[in-house]
Amino acid sequence: MLEELAIPILIITVLFMPLGAALFALGWGIRSYRARFDLANALASARREANEATAVHQEVSRAGTGNTALKRSRKQGAKESDGGADSDDLTLINGIGPVLSKRLNGIGIDSFQQIASWKKSDALTFGELLSFPGRIENDDWIGQAKKLAQAEARP
Fold this sequence. Notes:
mainly alpha
């Protein structure tokens, strides 16, 4: 009886073994692909989060620098206002139009002396705050403000 079953079992085994091996390999291939896909998504997500964290860190540090520059300029303005100085016409500086003048006045910059006392880092900070990076340096606002402040100081 076992001999009668041996040949059909052998035929079934020989026929279905490649099919089983193919299905097994296909399963591993799908698992491998999913693992690579999940890994790629995880890496992309980690990079996005790292970039967002870096952007937030830069924004916070820029805001801190901006606050320092604003405080320094406002102190300069307070010293001037104690002496009875009025606000200057900032549009006399080449590169500052009426709109920028209003924006500068809105953040507390209203005199040539305040701009003249800026350092290079302050110029970079205010350039970022005004959404015109590099404009202050290119138009030499600090040099122009120094000349205008000296001319104003001479009666």
